[in-house]
Amino acid sequence: MRIRTLAVTAVLVATSLAGAACGGGDAQPVGRPVAPARPTPTTGPGASAGPTTTTTQTAGGSPAGGASPGGTTTTTPVSTGPVISAQSLATLNAELGSLGTSLNQVDNDLAQAQGDQ
Amino acid sequence: MNMHLHGAHRRPVRTTLAAVALAGMVPALALAAPPPTAGASGVTSHPTCTAATVATAQQALEAALNSRVTELGTLTAAVGAAGDLTPGDRSTLTTTLSTTTSAIGALVQKAPTDTTCIAVWQDARSMVAGERVFAVVAPQTHLAIAADTADTIEATVAGEEPTIQAAIAAAADDGVDTAAAEASFTDLRTQVTAAQGETSGVPATVLAQTPASYPGSTPVFVSARDGLRTAQGQLKQADADLQAVVADLR
């Protein structure tokens, strides 16, 4: 009886390892996203399209090992891209320019206020 | 009241309103500042206007009115083009500009009919003290626009903070050294918070000023301008921080 138990255990371990070796077993926990690729900008901030996909892998194999087809891979688009788009940065700079223009006008207003004294 | 009818006005005047106006030396000052005074005869008169110079004073008044019409048109256009104005501030400014334009327009119609020094003086007084186009309306318009623009910038940058924070966290998970990005991000948040403190309440404060608030309105405007200048510097630094984060996380 003891010998039979040990044999069964050995078989289970062996099949499990075999399943892992053929791609069925995956070290990734179920549903853990794989880190997206780093952005690769060309020139200037936001010039790169950045990563466009992320990959999620599920664990393959069965608890008993065997010839399972392995984990599934799902590729979905994400919107990370550059941290802030070039357009947003340009808009922000334009707003800063408008702020400066308005404050310069205030300076002129205060200088001309004597006309109302 | 034609001052020519009173003996008190036959004496030579020290400085005529017309002379000041023709010299281009702040005509509004000469037109509006000294109120009519009671002469020896007890009749209200003006020390800087004579019957001989009424026409010139009248022309100076019309020129001063026209300059205000031009200014009000410029301010109205600025409000129309200011995309960052809040609806409430836009409404307030639009009402103020419309009311002021109507008042100045009425004076434009009346000024040519003035035939006496006192009539010219009264219209000039209404133009300056009643409307304060240059001393109140213009700075409050530009300050409200500037403050709302600063508010928009602050909201825009603050709105990006979660995205930036997530990007830094993702980069760190990916093994990237994010120390510099984190430092820039921390400074960005500090700058935006400080700018919000400088900007907060400015629109309401400046829009509460009226022609009657003058001259007390001037230090209010100067203080608001100084605060917004400080906010401008802080927002420029926040923008630099933002660009540094973007560069660090490439």
What is the gist of this entry?
The complex is a heterodimer of chains A (117) and B (250). Chain A has helices spanning 2-21, 86-112; strands at residues 33-34, 53-57, 73-77. With 117 residues, chain A is of the alpha+beta class.
The level of helicity of chain B is over 70%
- N-to-C CA distance of chain B: 78 Å
Most strands sheet of chain A:
3 strands, antiparallel
Order of helices and strands of chain B: HHEEHHHHHHH
Low-confidence stretches of chain B: 1-29, 35-45
* Secondary structure tally, helices of chain A: 2
Count of folded domains of chain B: 2
Helix percent band of chain A: 40-55%
Structurally, how many domains make up the residues of chain A?
1
What topology emerges from the helices and strands here?
The complex is a heterodimer of chains A (117) and B (250).
Chain A: H1 2-21, E1 33-34, E2 53-57, E3 73-77, H2 86-112
Antiparallel strand pairs in A: 1-2, 2-3
Chain B: H1 17-22, H2 27-32, E1 37-38, E2 44-45, H3 54-81, H4 87-110, H5 117-131, H6 133-173, H7 179-199, H8 202-207, H9 217-248
Antiparallel strand pairs in B: 1-2
Helix pairs in contact in B: 3-4, 3-5, 3-6, 4-5, 4-6, 6-7, 6-9, 7-9
Model description:
The complex is a heterodimer of chains A (117) and B (250). With 117 residues, chain A is of the alpha+beta class. Chain A has one domain (2-83). Helices cover 40% and strands 10% of the residues of chain A. Chain A has two helices and three strands, in the order H-E-E-E-H. Chain A has a three-stranded antiparallel β-sheet with strand order 1-2-3, with no helix packed on it. The longest helix of chain A has 27 residues, at 86-112. Chain A starts with a helix and ends in a 5-residue tail after the last helix. Chain B is an all-alpha fold. Chain B folds into two domains: 3-130, no CATH class; 134-248. Helix content of chain B is 72%, strand content 2%. Chain B contains nine helices and two strands, in the order H-H-E-E-H-H-H-H-H-H-H. Chain B has helices spanning 17-22, 27-32, 54-81, 87-110, 117-131, 133-173, 179-199, 202-207, 217-248; strands at residues 37-38, 44-45. Chain B has a two-stranded antiparallel ribbon with strand order 1-2. In chain B, a hairpin with a 5-residue loop joins strand 1 (37-38) and strand 2 (44-45). In chain B, helix 3 packs parallel to helix 5, helix 4 packs antiparallel against helix 6 and helix 7 (179-199) runs antiparallel to helix 9. The longest helix of chain B has 41 residues, at 133-173. Chain B is rod-shaped, with a radius of gyration of 27 Å. Chain A binds chain B through residues 35-36, 38-41, 45-46, 48, 80, 82-84, 88-89, 91-93, 95-96, 98-100, 102-103, 105-107, 109-110, 112-117, and chain B through 26, 28-29, 33, 67, 78, 84, 128, 132-136, 138-139, 142-143, 145-146, 149-150, 152-153, 156-157, 160, 163-164, 167, 170, 173-174, 176, 214-215, 218, 221-222, 225, 228-229, 232, 235-236, 239, 242-243, 245-247, 249-250.
